[in-house]
Design a protein that fits this description.
Blueprint: E1 3-13, E2 16-23, H1 28-34, E3 49-56, E4 60-62, H2 98-103, E5 128-130, E6 160-163, E7 174-178, E8 202-203, E9 219-221, E10 226-227, H3 232-240, H4 251-257, E11 264-266, E12 268-269, E13 272-273, H5 279-282, E14 293-297, E15 309-313, E16 318-319, E17 329-336, H6 366-370, E18 375-385, E19 396-403, H7 413-417, H8 434-446, E20 448-449, E21 466-471, E22 475-486, E23 492-505, H9 508-513, H10 515-518, H11 547-558, H12 566-580, E24 596-599, H13 606-609, E25 631-635, E26 644-646, E27 654-656, E28 663-664, E29 672-673
Antiparallel strand pairs: 1-2, 3-23, 4-16, 4-23, 5-6, 6-7, 7-11, 8-9, 9-13, 10-12, 14-15, 17-18, 18-21, 19-20, 19-22, 22-23, 24-25, 26-27, 28-29
């Protein structure tokens, strides 16, 4: 059988022509595979094929990086020009002023670090040692930056700095430059504000400031606003002794001002309002009513009323459409395989084998068994026809499987139209949903290219890409695939298509347990249908002592099933409970069975034993009742042919003569009969028959 692909302009309808796999050598099988009767156009009992359900290209959609998706607009309000810039800031915006900070109740910290009026008395319970940066002459690796160790051996001529923990409150918070030789009185300490870690975020909320009333962070001092001046009282002493050179300053004067042991400095802060560090005051990220503008941070002092914030127009996600429609024709490529196949295309004859296609194969073929559930399916996408006109030649294609068809709840076409995949094609400003647009672009980013694009413009030699799915149940399943057509650099989505691809997963139970497949004697396991409306009629039954039951129990105990033996394992697991529940009948012992009949109405026994003519050797019990319209089923065991009993009633059903046999199961081999079946003996001598 040569499976190829062709287009059927009438199926599924004249408005939705489909692409179908079919047997090119036997057109009569086309109807069997697809279930489409040529006399009934658009009747859907098909097996495998693809057609477009939905498509849209009335707008183009800009593919914006995910990190920028919070800053987009629909672009619909007033065309290319957009809406006018709002004149007022967003609701809740608070100007960053001293008055507003004071009104909010955050106490302004002291200007000088040695001012203890607003601080806890134990602001510096232990001194903070600060050394020079690494690599400098002032750096010492054995010193603890901002440490709390006051028991340190000191070296002469090594500048070190500490924030004082002096005895008096007036002396705390001062920077001490220590252990310089006394005649180096002049000059400035090398300590810089940025050498102190907490200055990188010097707000009233910084714990190192140790305010008596905890700050809210509404005040801030930038690094550039922090200085280290000489305390006022020391400046006075410096001026007094500025004319004296080569004088050793000792005694009470040195002790009072720490002159000779180093020079004092303080940190001086220039506090500014810091309200706009908080979103609740700056309202960053707020949108205008038309969603065309966003309140965002701009250049320092370049925004609204000299602030750092202003209205910024959002980039538009929607744009004008591509007015010409390409003549691309897509087809879903379903391949049954545990491994991802390497397929150049899914269209050429001979690329795919018969048992790789989920088609409704005839149930008396090996292909039927190969396509039963559970089934691992690889699903890809190919182009039955690619439009290579210049305006479409560089298009890129991605696809995303929306539904596999076996979900408990499936989306309707209307629901899909309202989803993120198609909503942008029919949206206005009132219904524009930014989260929906963001979700769409995320799906596009994660979708698979239909082929592994290489360096060539047209990747004819690149392999198809596949999604994988496992079907656990049988049936006809519609796979819904969303196709994204993009421009060559993948910055614009030009078209979205919903492709429906139907596949068939055949019934594993039927393939293992149907007499119609295996005939009267080729079956290995005893068939049984459990559907109430489709059960077999069993005359006789199975006993626990039979070779068949004993062998099934042994196979279950041995558990030699391989991965490929799921059908056998499932059957054996189901058989034993069904047998114990008498669904295979109850063995009656020895039985001499003659004609078996089923009627649509009751008859008196005398109707059968009374002679039907003057010939007393004839009765309805011995006559074939093929002409009796009430007799729907009639089996005559003496008429057995190859284990099959044809019904002579009005039904076309048939009976199968079965007997006892033993099953064996070996590793990596199929379950099979050990020997021939012990079937009932047929009495052919008329004189010895029951009638």
């Amino acid at each position: 059988m040569a499976i190829i692909v062709k287009q059927e302009p009438l199926y599924p309808s004249i408005t939705k022509p489909g692409i179908f796999y079919y047997d090119s050598e036997n057109e009569t099988l086309w109807e069997e595979y697809t279930g489409i009767d040529d006399s009934e156009i658009n009747r859907f009992k098909f097996s495998i094929g693809s057609w477009v359900e939905l498509k849209a290209q009335n707008r183009s959609v800009k593919i914006i990086p995910n990190e920028d998706m919070d800053y987009i607009s629909s672009g619909l309000t007033s065309g290319a020009g957009g809406s006018a810039k709002p004149v007022d800031p967003p609701p809740g915006w608070t100007e960053n002023t001293v008055e507003n900070v004071e009104e909010l109740g955050d106490v302004k910290p002291s200007r000088d670090s040695d001012d203890m009026s607003q601080r806890f008395e134990e602001m510096f319970k232990h001194p903070y040692f600060i050394v020079g940066p690494e690599g400098s002459d002032e750096h010492r690796s054995d010193r603890t930056i901002e440490g709390h160790d006051s028991d340190v051996s000191y070296l002469v001529n090594v500048p070190e700095y500490m924030i004082s923990a002096g005895g008096s409150s007036n002396d705390r918070g001062r920077i001490k430059e220590r252990y310089l030789v006394p005649d180096q009185f002049g000059g400035n300490p090398n300590i810089q504000p940025e050498d102190v870690g907490w200055h990188a975020n010097a707000t009233s909320k910084s714990p190192e400031l140790k305010l008596a009333v905890a700050g809210k962070g509404y005040w801030k001092a930038d690094i550039s606003d922090i200085s280290t001046p000489v305390p006022d009282e020391e400046s006075t002493v410096r001026r007094l002794f500025s004319g004296l050179r080569n004088v050793s300053i000792t005694g009470l004067l040195a002790d009072a001002f720490n002159i000779g042991r180093g020079r004092d400095r303080i940190f001086r802060y220039k506090w500014k309002p810091n309200l706009h560090a908080f979103q609740k005051f700056n309202r960053e990220g707020s949108y205008s009513e038309d969603f065309e503008w966003i309140w965002a941070r701009v250049g320092k002092g370049e925004g609204f009323n000299g602030s750092d914030f202003d209205w910024v127009q959002l980039p538009a996600i929607l744009d004008t459409p591509e007015y010409q429609t390409p003549e691309n024709i897509f087809v879903g490529v379903p391949i049954i395989s545990n491994e991802v196949p390497e397929v150049l295309n899914g269209l050429a004859s001979g690329v795919l084998s018969e048992n790789q296609l989920p088609v409704f194969h005839p149930i008396d073929t090996d292909n039927y068994t190969d396509t039963t559930a559970p089934l691992r399916l690889n699903f890809g996408l190919d182009l039955f026809q690619l439009d290579l006109r210049d305006q479409f030649a560089g298009n890129k294609f991605k696809f995303h499987v929306l539904e596999w068809g076996d979900e408990d709840v499936k989306l309707s076409n209307e629901e899909i139209l309202n989803s993120e995949f198609f909503a942008l094609y029919d949206v206005d400003d009132d219904t524009f949903d930014k989260s929906q647009a963001k979700k769409l672009l995320q799906i596009i980013a994660n979708a698979k290219y239909y082929k592994s694009y290489g360096s060539t413009q047209y990747p004819q030699n690149e392999t198809l890409n596949f999604y994988q799915h496992t079907y656990t149940d049988s049936g006809v399943f519609p796979i819904k695939t969303v196709i994204f057509r993009m421009n060559s650099d993948e910055t614009v989505l030009l078209e979205t298509i919903l492709l429906n691809s139907n596949i068939v997963v055949n019934d594993a139970g039927e393939s293992l347990q149907d007499f119609n497949i295996f005939g009267a004697s080729d079956f290995n396991v005893l068939p049984l249908k459990t559907d109430r409306d489709d059960r077999e009629l069993i005359i006789g039954g199975i006993t626990e002592r039979s070779k068949y039951v004993k062998s099934v129990r042994k196979i279950e105990r041995d558990d030699v099933y391989g991965q490929q033996d799921y059908l056998e394992k499932r059957y054996n697991e189901r058989f034993l409970p069904l047998m114990e529940d008498s669904l295979y009948g109850d063995h009656p012992g020895k039985l001499d069975l003659s004609t078996a009949r089923i009627f649509t109405k009751p008859y008196d026994l005398s109707y059968f034993i009374e002679p039907v003519s003057e010939d007393e050797n004839r009765s309805r019990a011995t006559d074939i009742l093929i002409d009796n319209t009430e007799c729907i089923f009639e089996l005559n065991p003496s008429e057995v042919d190859g284990g099959v009993l044809e019904s002579t009633g009005n039904s076309d059903s048939q009976g199968i003569l079965i007997g006892d046999y033993k099953l064996i199961k070996e590793q990596n081999r199929e379950m099979r009969k050990e020997d021939s079946m012990d079937i009932p003996k047929i009495e052919t001598r008329r004189d010895n028959q029951a009638f």
